[in-house]
Design brief:
Layout (H helix, E strand, L loop, with lengths): L5 E9 L4 H13 L5 E5 L3 E3 L10 E10 L3 H14 L15 E7 L4 E2 L4 E2 L8 H11 L2 H4 L8
């Protein structure tokens, strides 16, 4: 762990089972990470699936959080949270899932590894990210935060 709290923007989505329940539990679990705090949450939006469209619609939101984890460590924790909430990874990357957590931005800069790219390379192409992200960034707690220049 880095020791210093890092700020992140994440995108969450669910289209199987109790979508609201999965998102709420994911938010709770993210808040339990080392010295973590979820500081702002966008409204949730219904979104049509992308790629593989023969599946239920998604419920998507974005959130801001701070925690002690480095990006690769946070990625591992988000994958564990997805698995805890029943996410089964298949060859169909756009298939249905109980929970999907994407790291979108890290205040510390950029990352480019085989496992993780930050900022997320396709965030601008995805309405299920841009709509909740726009609402999140208009939240009073974020509107006055100068460090968001990196967006």
């Amino acid at each position: 762990m880095s020791g210093a709290r890092q700020r992140y923007l994440l995108g969450l989505g669910s289209n199987l089972g109790d979508r609201v329940g999965h998102l709420n539990e994911a938010i709770r679990l993210l808040g339990q990470l080392p010295r973590a705090e979820v500081t702002a949450i966008s409204p949730a939006f219904d979104s049509d699936p992308v790629g593989f469209t023969d599946q239920p619609s998604f419920l998507n939101l974005c959130l801001e959080m701070v925690c002690e984890l480095k990006p690769a460590e946070l990625l591992q924790q988000t994958l564990a949270i997805e698995a805890t909430l029943g996410r089964l990874r298949t060859n169909n990357r756009n298939g249905p899932r109980t929970l999907d957590i994407d790291l979108l931005f890290w205040e510390g800069g950029s990352v480019d590894t085989p496992e993780l790219t930050l900022p997320h390379p396709r965030w601008k192409e995805r309405g299920f990210v841009t709509v909740p992200l726009r609402h999140l960034l208009q939240a009073p707690a974020l509107a006055s935060a100068a460090p968001w220049d990196w967006l």
